[in-house]
Amino acid sequence: MQKANEVTQKYSSLEEYLEAKKYLTPKDIEQKLGLSHSTVSKLINTKGFPATRIGRSIFVKAEDFEAFMDTYRTKQVGI
To answer: Which of 14, 27, 60, 76 is most exposed, with the fewest beta carbons within 10 Å of its own?
Structure first.
């Protein structure tokens, strides 16, 4: 709960907090896009998705995520 309090004190909104992060977690992507956990898992396993796995953790560089989204903004991604 301490992290949630830290976020609300430092940032005015969840969107602002997510914008400031350099690396996103699958949970961040779920919140940012309003998608379910299973949909984000499928997206992460899509060929070409810029995810990095370290052990069991998954991280996505925020700028790489934005570039991926820009590339597929008008295309339908088969997930």
So the answer is: 76
d(CA 29, CA 17): 12
Rounded to 10°, the helix 26-33/37-44 angle is 120
Helix (H, G, I), strand (E, B) or coil at 33: helix
Distance of alpha carbon 18 from alpha carbon 28, whole angstroms: 7
Dihedral, 71, 16, 6, 58 alpha carbons, nearest 10: 0
pLDDT in tens, 10-29: 777 766 766 677 899 999 99
pLDDT digits (tens, 9 = 90+) for 54-68: 999 999 999 999 898
- CA–CA separation, 52 vs 72, rounded Å? 19
Alpha-carbon span 66 to 19, nearest angstrom: 10
